[in-house]
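Thread title: Can someone regenerate the structure for this chain?

I was given the following input by a collaborator and told the matching structure tokens would be attached. They weren't. Posting the sequence so someone can regenerate them.
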Amino acid sequence: MKNVIYICIAALFAVLAFGSCNDEIDIRQDYDFSLSSWYLQKQIATGETVEIRFYLDREGDYEKAEYEIGYIQMEGKGEVTDCEGVKLVNREVRPLAEVPELDTENPVRQVFTLFYRSTSAKRSELKFFVRDNFGREKELTVTFDVESGTAEE
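Best answer:
Regenerated them for you:
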């Protein structure tokens, strides 16, 4: 009788242990992300260069996730460069990993800096976008008004 009880208990444990297993492994690769920037000045003079510090915040870390950065000049004229002076081309993308001084210390927050130099006396509006290799894309619009007067030196 004892053997029957031990066998029933062992069978019950086996059913509970193996019955709760799930062969479907949920591995997430395409985490959502956001693109934001540090405080930006509101006005810019012709020929002035401003720093734009970006933050790419991700919901999770997947080491094979790849990102690209690009921009579209919506209004005005100007140039976007990285810290080494390499120009980004309007309406073209560049791998984010190629941006110099990309801070990847925190796996879910990447920080990078680009510079914008206005070459016209008109309001500048740029739409920056980052896309990942899973098809997600986020945009950030940056606007600089023209300085109303030029200070004399």
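The mean pLDDT is 87.
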